[in-house]
Amino acid sequence: MDVMQRSNLLESACLFPPPLGLKLSYGTAGFRADASILQSTMFRMGILAALRSLKTHSVIGLMITASHNKVSDNGVKIADPCGGMLSQHWEPFSDQLANAPDPQTLLLLIVEFVKKENIPFDGAFTAEILLGRDTRPSGESLLEAAKQGVRSIVGAVAHDMGILTTPQLHWMVRARNKGLKATESDYFEQLLSSFRCLMDLIPNESKMDEIEDKLIVDGANGVGGEKLEVIKKMLSGLVIEVHNTGKEGGILNEGVGADFVQKEKVVPHGFGSNHAGIRCASLDGDADRLVYFSVASNSSNKIDLVDGDKILSLFAVFIKEQLSILEGDMKGNNNYKARLGVVQTAYANGASTDYLKHLGLEVVLTPTGVKYLHARAAQYDIGIYFEANGHGTILFSEHYLSWLEAKHTELSSISQGSELQKAALRLLAVSKLINQAVGDALSGLLLVEAILRHMGWSIHNWNELYQDLPSRQLKVKVADRTAVVTANAETVVMSPPGLQEAINSEIAKCIKGRSFVRPSGTEDVVRVYAEASTEEEADSLANSVAELVDRFLGVGST
Ligand SMILES: CC(=O)N[C@H]1[C@@H](OP(=O)(O)O)O[C@H](CO)[C@@H](O)[C@@H]1O
Ligand SMILES: [Mg+2]
């Protein structure tokens, strides 16, 4: 880094002083906090994104969103060259950058890191950053801060991609780095053409006509609703009605959205008993989460929730069916058995894990956070991952996709229109429809809709794949949540000593009891999860475990 670069950094850093005592952590999914304190963080993440671009010789993404958090919050996530989350290896550096108290310390940290990581500053490569933001009102000024951060690296270019869903930005980064068409209309075109392909391949005997055409979607008053309004105009065979688009005056994520629906298990605002029996879905604030639900027919505000675990199960059943067609009667020489794997977290309902294992699938658990699930799913030919809250996707390895393409070409020449060829084509269409960069509510929704029609299933048939065990989630405010250290994909507490034993004895009092605690990576709380054979038992187990957390770590304790 030459003198000009250093003075450029120092000069612009002086324009973005951090609030006194700011302490942020990259957490489960980027920095999040009240938007009013994030100017300096955004500026610094602009710098980080530009450095990452120089290091990887690739286009990098910077998304300004706080997802399902309240509207006054905001946040930032970085998308790596493949469209996935920022490499965990760089997370400590992002923490240091965000928390550096003054411009001099910031500069020193950057100089040291550039040296350590050997980041080239020879001008041979132009750093390029794609910036996106959700609909939060604070997004615009935070975008300016991020742009200035990017530009404080001499020669780096910031492209404002406008208001986008998080998965759209990740998709664009991935597409750009693969040299593919990467605009928003290319994204829509890819989704719609692969959806049409799946619809055209629906077997004649499918009871598709019996399925309600209409789907009502809760857009969480955010960006997802806006984008779905665009998509729905280009669809045929599926009627989408979007509620909570944000245009009716509703507030982002307030009493609406996938997080609210999944955690509270009640109807979102704008839905009621007049929607009973109709297939409904809910997106979160940046449209990377999707859950389905149906409104209970009695006049209560209760819903039948069809969560991420059930979306995963639906996808798994469909993929498995296509694989058994394709692999059951292999014609030709080029035969291969795909390794299919399923990835969940400890929040997955126990009944879903049992169901998936019963199907004969390999199921693995990782810690919470898409970065862990995604990395694990990428180890399979086809890896399906979902968090119970509705964030997930299906990953196809490059190796498997090349095999599939070749197989499809071979089958097209020897048995055009055969079931085998159709199965290959369906799998190829799924790989194009479902976002390969990150979980995407919009592409997930289109895949769910296509599969339901393929199966001839109503939302009720789908929901009956298995019966969820009653579960309850609670949050406990403690003095220092980092005092909770867990192991085995967060299912066991290692510290503070004695807490796990105490939790175990509460679990032992319940039939089918399971409970675990972990510090949240996005909120200043310890989360408690409990499930058991009845609602009462799940509630009481969650309450007892929350009391234990409070006793071991409560606000008063040290
Ligand atoms: C129980 C739960 O839903 N946790 C969520 C939540 O993380 P926490 O670390 O639990 O706060 O936000 C993450 C980012 O959206 C998401 O990946 C994760 O699943
Ligand atoms: Mg989200």
Task: Give a brief description.
This protein is α/β, with parallel strands linked by helices.
Key features of this structure:
single chain, 558 residues, alpha/beta, Alpha-D-Glucose-1,6-Bisphosphate, Chain A, domain 3, 4 domains, five-stranded mixed sheet, 18 helices, 41% helix, globular, binds 2-acetamido-2-deoxy-1-O-phosphono-alpha-D-glucopyranose, binds magnesium ion, EC 5.4.2.3
Description:
- There is one protein chain.
- By secondary structure, this protein is of the alpha/beta class.
- It is globular, with a radius of gyration of 24 Å.
- The protein folds into four domains: 3-163, Alpha-D-Glucose-1,6-Bisphosphate, subunit A, domain 3 (Alpha-D-Glucose-1,6-Bisphosphate, Chain A, domain 3), CATH 3.40.120.10; 198-303, Alpha-D-Glucose-1,6-Bisphosphate, subunit A, domain 3 (Alpha-D-Glucose-1,6-Bisphosphate, Chain A, domain 3, 3-Layer(aba) Sandwich); 309-463, Alpha-D-Glucose-1,6-Bisphosphate, Chain A, domain 3 (3-Layer(aba) Sandwich), CATH 3.40.120; 471-553, 2-Layer Sandwich (TATA-Binding Protein).
- Helices cover 41% and strands 18% of the residues.
- The longest helix has 21 residues, at 308-328.
- A hairpin with a 6-residue loop joins strand 8 and strand 9.
- The strands form five sheets. It has a five-stranded mixed beta sheet, sandwiched between helices. The protein has a five-stranded mixed beta sheet with strand order 7-6-8-9-10, with helices on both faces.
- Helix 2 (39-56) crosses helix 5 and helix 7 (184-200) runs antiparallel to helix 14 (419-433).
- It contains 18 helices and 19 strands.
- The model has no long low-confidence stretch (mean pLDDT 95).
- The protein has helices spanning 3-14, 39-56, 91-99, 103-116, 139-151, 166-177, 184-200, 223-232, 258-264, 308-328, 350-358, 370-377, 398-415, 419-433, 441-455, 459-463, 499-507, 535-553, and strands spanning 31-34, 59-64, 73-79, 128-133, 157-163, 214-218, 239-243, 279-283, 290-295, 303-306, 340-344, 362-365, 382-386, 392-396, 471-476, 485-487, 492-495, 514-519, 526-531.
- Magnesium ion binds at residues 67-68, 284, 286, 288-289.
- This is Phosphoacetylglucosamine mutase.
- Residues 182-291, 307-457 form the Phosphoacetylglucosamine mutase AMG1 domain.
- GO terms for molecular function: metal ion binding; phosphoacetylglucosamine mutase activity.
